[in-house]
Amino acid sequence: LPSGSRSSKTFKPKKNIPEGSHQYELLKHAEATLGSGNLRQAVMLPEGEDLNEWIAVNTVDFFNQINMLYGTITEFCSESSCPVMSAGPRYEYHWADGTNIKKPIKCSAPKYIDYLMTWVQDQLDDETLFPSKIGVPFPKNFMSVAKTILKRLFRVYAHIYHQHFDSVMRLQEEAHLNTSFKHFIFFVQ
Question: Which CATH number fits domain 22-188: 2.50.20.10, 1.20.140.30, 3.40.50.1000, 2.20.25.90?
Fold first, then answer.
């Protein structure tokens, strides 16, 4: 990496759902209903499916979408251009993961997003939180974990909209960002 450029760690590898698994089938169902153009229908729990499984699959999908969207604008989101993780002057986000960083710290947007994406990736990779095998139960605190992940991922959308929408428009990605965000909002509601 050239000196002064950001860590390549911020853009995380895509979290894959194993082909042939039940989660893969749920993801395919979600993609098919998304293709219908009806986002409200796309977020509905399919009949007979487990709510935790549906939330897990969609959380992974949103992580991947946000990762990709942010990855397209990383060159515009630097320590100097975004010294604080914010979504406008009224919303400033400080990072704490409760493990390594217990007391919230003020940091730049790229650093915050790097911390966030690493933290989410670790949660998604934890088989005790996000089991990938059929029949392995989700933990009792799963809903709380998923809500925290989604709440924090929302902050990346908020930052992109408030600080980088001009770049998104120059890249002609606003339709993709808007559809992804609308899908996310319908899902979390």
Answer: 1.20.140.30
